[in-house]
Amino acid sequence: MAISDTHAPRRWRGCPPAVAGHLRGADLILHAGDVCVPSVLDELSAYAPVKAVLGNNDGPEVAAWGAPETLEFDLDGLPAAMIHDSGPASRRTARMRRRFPGAALVVFGHSHIPLDETGDGVRIFNPGSPTDRRRQPHGTIGLLHVENGRLLTAEIVPVT
């Protein structure tokens, strides 16, 4: 499962029930930054292991929890990466390919705008925000189904 921009405690005052329903079946939770307080990562860790990166609103407490600025990792054989801010929409896939040349999938956040796009040999995925939808019709999370090094499905799921 992928999540981003929870912005606690201003926006996230505990795991929303619709999000918790999806967390119960998760094997891994990817948080693409702007957690704001590490207690959110502790809360998510009660459901499944968590990998997180720092967002522009995250301080030293989130870094001390173990969130770096970027992360590259293996997702059941699929080379993946995570970053909070992927920059402007223009040429985003090319930029992510240069930044993470070995990644087949890059998960990011920051904009609160859900996105699933493929280009320049990389798939980029922004789950949006479950708690701060801004100009979006719904708060969202992302569900990623990976098996044997292949991303089988990537889905943006409304939770509000």
UniProtKB/TrEMBL annotation:
<dbReference type="InterPro" id="IPR024654">
    <property type="entry name" value="Calcineurin-like_PHP_lpxH"/>
</dbReference>
<protein>
    <recommendedName>
        <fullName>Phosphoesterase</fullName>
        <ecNumber>3.1.4.-</ecNumber>
    </recommendedName>
</protein>
<dbReference type="Pfam" id="PF12850">
    <property type="entry name" value="Metallophos_2"/>
</dbReference>
<keyword id="KW-0479">Metal-binding</keyword>
<feature type="domain" description="Calcineurin-like phosphoesterase">
    <location>
        <begin position="2"/>
        <end position="148"/>
    </location>
</feature>
<comment type="similarity">
    <text>Belongs to the metallophosphoesterase superfamily. YfcE family.</text>
</comment>
<dbReference type="InterPro" id="IPR000979">
    <property type="entry name" value="Phosphodiesterase_MJ0936/Vps29"/>
</dbReference>
<dbReference type="InterPro" id="IPR029052">
    <property type="entry name" value="Metallo-depent_PP-like"/>
</dbReference>
